[in-house]
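For the sake of transparency, this paper describes our internal protein records without simplification. The remainder of this section carries one protein's record, kept here as part of the documentation:
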Amino acid sequence: MALDVSRALREPGEMIPFEATADIELERDDFIENGPATMRGQMTAIGESIAVMGKITLPGKARCARCLEEFPTEIFARLEETFVRKGNLQEQSEDDEGDEAMLYEGEAIELDRAAEAALYLNMPMRFLCKTSCKGLCPICGKDRNQSPCTCPNNDDDNPFSALRSLLTDE
């Protein structure tokens, strides 16, 4: 996702709107991407640095963690990053070794790495096709959303079943 920043560099301090698209590969077994990521936002030049603020949208398909069915979804992320022109970055002190500045050269900024990081941080821990998804039966594997399962409910296999003895009817 290359962003042309030549106009921002010519007009420092001005908020310049932009829109960019890119193919971003997120490596997760439960997320299958369909379309390119789009980013809409604003950029501002602050000296030789460029501040980028915007919203990233990545459409795709995900696999439900309960029933394993694929369903369409979108991941949204906000990006607020400052890019520093390569060569203008002062020497980092030993205390700042872990800090990594986003660098750019010329009049274009590559947003792929920053956009990918923002999308990863905003992905859910697990995808659900719907919050009321009943999932698969652990005994026969039947999808409980399509039809009820007739397997016996064996609560003794539950690791928390020993706690039931602490409950009283009172």
